[in-house]
Structure formats: structure tokens, C-alpha cells
Amino acid sequence: MRIWSLDRLISPVVAAFILALGLLVAPAWAQNTTANAPAAQAVSEQQLLDELGKIQGRITIPDQKAATLQQPQGRDYQSFQRSTLPWVGAVAIIGMLLAIALFFFIRGRVRTQAGESRQKILRFNALERLMHWTTATAFIVLAITGLNLIFGRRLVLPLIGPEAFSTWSSWSKYAHHFVSWAFMLGVLVMLVVWVWYNLPDRYDANWIKSAGGLLDKSNRTHPPAGRFNTGQKLVFWSVVLGGISLSVSGIYMLFPFAFTDINGMQTAQYVHAIIGVLMVAVIIAHIYIGTLGMEGAYEAMGSGTVDLNWAKEHHSAWVEEQQEKVGGRTPPHTAAEPAE
Ligand code: HEM
Questions:
Q1: Where does a domain end: 48, 66, 84?
Q2: Which residue's alpha carbon is nearest to atom 29 within ligand 1?
Q3: What is the pLDDT of residues 78-110, one digit of tens each?
Q4: Backbone φ and ψ of 69, nearest 5°
């Protein structure tokens, strides 16, 4: 008589084997399924966020901010930084470049209709030029290094590779932090030195009505303007108000949490980034009109003097004021150019 049949012996052995295998494989399988389905984890995080508002822990270091691991505003900011901001930036900058290209093809270069007079008039003194170029150089450095934060990973990283990109990005961060002080100083000095000439005056309404004569292809419309025309006043106020917003939000970021909490920090970042890209677009237009777009304009900031005919066409009221100051004679600092 066989007490242990093969069938009877096999079943407990097989059962024990399957159990042991199950114990070994189940945890690994469970881990694998979560790793392969990150959504499962995300859903639970989302539930925590929905229910608690924040994902927080308990910490023993004095900095209690570190106890918050995630909060909904952080995710909003992340999506703004990764998708909204690059879109706003691209639309503003590419849109402006396209608008300038269109303007150039339709209108061409704005030329001095009366030609050169060979007489020069001082438009910006040395202090004004120093102030302009300090602010301008600082802004260009800030613009390039700031745009690297928005577009660098997409546009620069694939071109130069991760190592060079990481070196460039850390240097560009230092440059952004240190050069910002020169920009802030420049904007303040600009405000003090030029504010008087940028207040609204009696020429503005007419200048706006005729769009500064810029759309007149025959180049005959030259609405009178004081030292700065309405278009330039808009550039001035964009630089001053935009510059002040960038400076205040920038100082919040240079000294994180010194003046505000996490929500304030995020607001500062939104303001800084949006104003920054809009200002880049405005300055691209300014650089165009100060160089390629208008004959004779660059000299004003280059040597400081402009041709008298240029000044009469673009800033007739200012030239008259200068002449009145000296009793109708040649304005001060005016010099005839030596004949060739
Ligand atoms: C390569 C870059 C730049 C060039 C070639 C340039 C050129 C000029 C020129 C020629 C003028 C005098 C226009 C006139 O005679 O009426 C001027 C004025 C001015 N610039 Fe610039 N500029 C540059 C960059 C900047 C930057 C980056 C800023 C500020 C962030 C700036 C702010 C101003 C302001 C506020 C004025 C006075 C208002 C006006 O004329 O529009 N410039 N610039």
C-alpha cells in the first residue's frame, strides 16, 4: 500500500514553489508596474495636492520653507516657464522682427530729404552718451543671458553639447547678476537726465496723427517735434518703467525670500520674465531705427553731433528752441564741417 501517491506529493511541492516564486516576484512586479505607469503615482500626488493644497513634511532645520515639497502654484509656474513664456517670448521677438522686415520692404530707409548741410549740431553731450551706452551694453548682456534661460535648452544645448552649455550657462548667470547693477544705475540716471524732454508736449497729438511721417513713402511729411518725438518718448518710458519693473523684480530674485514669501517670489518671476521679453522686442525696434532704419540717426549717439538738416527734419521745434536761445544765431556747439 502506498501512503504517498505521486499526485499527493506533487501538489504541496508545487504549491510551495508557486508561493515562494510569488513572494520573490511580486514586489519587483509591483515596483515595475508603478515605474512603467508614472501616472498612477502622479494621480496620488494630485490627490494629495487637491486635498491638502500642499505636499508638506516635517523638518528639523530652521528654514521652514524647506518643509513644503510641492504646492499648486509651483506647478502653475513650471508650466508657465516651460511653455507659456517661450511662446510669449517667441511671438514678441519674431513678431517684431517680421514687422521691421515688412516696414523696411515697404518704406525702405528713412533718408534726409534735404541732403547734408555740412553743419553739425550737438545732440547728446558726453554724459548722455556715456549713460546711453552703459545702459545699452548692460541691457544687451542681460537680454542675451536672460533669453538663454528661456530658450537655451532648446536652441543652444543641441548646438554646443551639454558640457559647453553648462559652462556657458553658469557664466551667463553670473553675468546676469552682476551686470544688472550697471543697468539699474543707467536707467535711474536716464530718468533724471531725460525725463524733462519726455513729458507730453503740444507736438505729440499731431505727431501721432501723422504717424511721425514714417508711413509717408514720399518722405515729405516731417511733423514738428521737440528734442524727443512721440515715438522716442514711448521708447524712453518703456525703458524707464520696464527697467524699474525689471529692477524691482530682479532685486527680489537676487535676494530670495528676503522681502517676500514663495508666492511673492513667483510673482516677481512672472513680472521679470514677461517685461523682459517685451522690452527686448521694443529695443530691437529701437536699434533698427537708430542704425539701418534712419539715415543720420546713429551719429547722434556715436559722435554726439548730427547734421543740421537731419535735425530740422526730425526735430524742427528743438532746433528752433536752440536757435532762440542764442538770438536766432547758429545754436551753441554748432560747427561747420570742413569742406572736402
Ligand atoms: C546697439 C544698440 C543701440 C543703438 C545703436 C542705439 C541708438 C540710439 C540712438 C541713435 C539714439 C538717439 C536718437 C536721436 O537722436 O533722436 C538713442 C536714444 C535712446 N536709446 Fe538707444 N541705442 C541702442 C540700444 C539701446 C538700449 C539697449 C537702450 C535701453 C535699454 C536704449 C535706450 C535709449 C533711449 C531711452 C533713448 C532716448 C529715446 C530715443 O531716442 O528713442 N538704447 N539710441
A1: 66
A2: 136
A3: 999 999 999 999 999 999 999 999 999 999 999
A4: -85, -45
Q: Does position 133 have pLDDT exceeding 90, yes or no?
A: yes
Query: Given the CA of residue 231, which atom of ligand 1 is nearest to it?
Result: 41
Q: Return the best residue to mutate from 124, 232, 286 for the ligand 1 pocket (most ligand atoms within 8 A of CB).
A: 286
Does 304 lie in the same domain as 245? yes
51 and 80 inside one domain: no
CA of 133 to the centre of ligand 1 (A): 8
195 and 61 within one domain? no
CA distance linking residue 183 with residue 188, whole number of Å: 9
My answer on whether 146 and 257 are in the same domain is yes
Q: Can you list the positions of beta strands (E) in 105-159?
A: 119-122
Q: Average pLDDT in the 284-305 region?
A: 97
Number of domains into which the chain is organized? 2
Q: Which pTM does this prediction carry?
A: 0.82
Ligand 1 binding pocket (C-beta < 6 A) is: 123, 132, 135-136, 139-140, 190, 228, 232, 235-236, 239, 283, 286-287, 290-291, 297-298, 300-301
Q: Which atom of ligand 1 is nearest to the CA of 123?
A: 15
Whether 236 has a pLDDT exceeding 90, the answer reads yes
Strands (E), the chain: 55-56, 68-70, 119-122, 305-307, 335-336
